Amino acid sequence: MISRNTVPRFLLAASALAVLGCTDSPNPVQPPSTASLARGAGQDRLAALFAEASPAVMALGGTVFADHDERANKLVFGVENASAVQGVERALAALGIARADYAVQITEPIQQLATLRDRYRPTQAGIQIHFGQYVCTMGFNVSHDGGRSFITNSHCTNKQGGTEGTTYAQPTRTIDPTVIATEADDPVYFTGGVCPRGKKCRYSDASRALYSSGVESVQGDILKTTGANNGSLEVAGVFTVTSQDNTTSNFTIGTVFNKVGRTTGWSQGPVSRTCVNTNVSGSRVHQICQTFVDADVAGGDSGSPVFKITSGDNVELVGILWGGGTGYYVMSPLSQIRKELGTSLTATK
Amino acid sequence: MICMSDPAARVTLRVPRSAPLGSKVPIVVLIENESAAPVELYLRGREIAYDIRVTRAGGDVVWRRLEGQVVPAILRLETIAPGKPIELRDSWDQRNNAGETVAPGEYAVSATVLSDGHSTLESVTLPLRIDRR
Questions:
Q1: Is the Cβ pair A282, B47 closer than 8 Å?
Q2: DSSP structural state of residue A99
Q3: Nearest residue of A to residue B114 by CA position?
Q4: pTM score > 0.80 for this model?
Q5: How far, in whole angstroms, is CA A40 from its chain's centroid?
Q6: Residues near A241 by Cβ (< 8 Å), separated by ≥ 6?
Q7: ipTM confidence score
Q8: Does the CB of B71 have a partner CB in chain A at under 8 Å?
Q9: A259-302: pLDDT as tens digits
Q10: Residues in chain A closer than 8 A to B49 (CB atoms)
Q11: Which residues in chain A land under pLDDT 50?
Q12: In this structure, are residues B53 and B126 in contact, taking their beta carbons and an 8 Å threshold?
């Protein structure tokens, strides 16, 4: 029976009671007034009507809420649009409820809010994925010579470097144990040459997972949360990948990039370093020619798609996020991902 | 699952009370479960990412383990059984983040384990005295 308005109303009532409870009554034994008795009797009558009316009305299409509004001394019904009003009136008339006892309001439908950590079928870029004992973000869906796939980090596989057939669930194995995809390509890290002594190197922290048949995916969309840099994980729309940057490794400092990840949502900030050779904390891994972006990141954002907004919600895909330090994240350019995972990789709508 | 703020999970630290100047100071960080049931924690990193801070008496940071480090942004699900802490070991070579040897005196050591979002598990701060040889 509850609309969003009911909660604050209830809190107000509760606060008022609390205040009354803390105040000495001028005459604690004084009987209730006639007016308050009448009001109480009216509320009892409306409560009885509400018990009948609520299930009858809420079974109708286009209804949003049913409330016994004690302040207004009315039953209040919320409907999505004017065309639903008549049905409510008919249902209440059939129950013998007088028009003066209720009001019908047109209101926005109350929707369950989806977040980046929910289950998505078809799958979308920016959502949570789960493998082994780890959680990451699905980078972006692609078409590829090897089949319909998604891209995430190389370190979001059971073994970073080398293809061992990591299986992925979404959002977690507990919520849905379906294997949505299986690791299909994670090139091994090389040593020697440009790779510093004692390190193992790649040009991108990226891997490809091949979708299981029967698991649908949307190519060219990245889930959009309610706003940049507000920390929200609530999905409010999509970005459309209309182009992809297949050539740039050396991005211009100050270019504003965006990412969407399961932990910190949509973050936006400028490129602060470009083509940086980067050691990875706690490992021998060395990533060559990476990009630093001054924007928010936290554990679980690994794999986030990184993009540039071109106009409105149209974006150009530029890379994949894999790590971060204090106040910045690090991404691998798409140009280098394609060199390692294949130039047939296409992420646009 | 028990969330990171659950009092069942806590970080403790083992640091010697004093160490001779120039020696490596062993530091052990323990993630413990103080409840009777297993706790599941979301911890950042493929290997658990944890920071150690050494500060002077006034609070100035002398050394941070993760200073300037790029940490993978992956979350690791770790189940800790009661009485079976996760033990993370490192040492401090008594150099500051600029690579200079520190002076003898009183210092303080604390540790932070990175978890989901920007939340962290913090240890208490322990004193450490660096003695002249």
A1: yes
A2: G
A3: A299
A4: no
A5: 45
A6: A125, A140, A220, A221, A222, A307, A315, A316, A317, A347, A348, A349
A7: 0.90
A8: yes
A9: 999 999 999 999 999 999 999 999 999 999 999 999 999 999 99
A10: 281-282, 299
A11: 1-37
A12: no
